[in-house]
Amino acid sequence: MIRTFTMLLIAMALCVSAAAQSNPDKGAVFAKALRNIPSRLALSSGTVEENTYKNDSLGLQITPPPGLKFSAPELKGKPGTLPLLVTVAAWGTAIGGTVFYADDLGYYPEDRRSTKAYVERVVRNQKKEGVDLVEGKAEEQLGGVNFYRVDFHSTLNYQAVLVKACDVYAFVFIFAASDLDSTNRLIAQTVVKLDMKASGCGQTDHPLPPKL
Known about the structure:
Helices cover 26% and strands 34% of the residues. It has helices at 2-19, 26-35, 115-128, 180-189, 196-199, and strands at 47-49, 52-55, 60-63, 69-70, 74-76, 85-92, 96-104, 132-134, 139-142, 145-154, 157-165, 169-177, 191-194. The longest helix is centred in the N-terminal third of the chain and has 18 residues, at 2-19.
């Protein structure tokens, strides 16, 4: 159940991306948007080496908690086309799992590339799926970077979604377990290393929004 519920969030990410393209002149919109995105390495799926996920195109490494094992990363979409996501997941038989994905912000209008705007889309899509929003802490740190945190729950599932819109990509971490304490343990035991320059997450002009 936890794994199924979490994978729905990945499908949701594709829906969020598709919704960003709903414009009759979307080709011109994309071209204009991409001109205002900093240069970057071509997005790659990355690799899993000794259960650590490494992706140089994102400046990112993730080592999951003990008991979770990464599956193969996936690039959803084709480089040079949109939408474009890279995602990787780690699962344990009983303790839950974690999912990471990076969403290319290049095709979003400039006023919809912020952390606040991305979180609002996540919440809106989850509510459509009948998932309950949980009041709780609104900030979490991973890899020396502050992420906005929003929690959800449904029957037998609890999730914390951490979002940070950086210069080029939205970085999203999803932690899923049976309850709040178990979810918090997954977060605490996850090791994230971010290259501030390569990831685009090291700038100080991307403040987190106030609590929803």
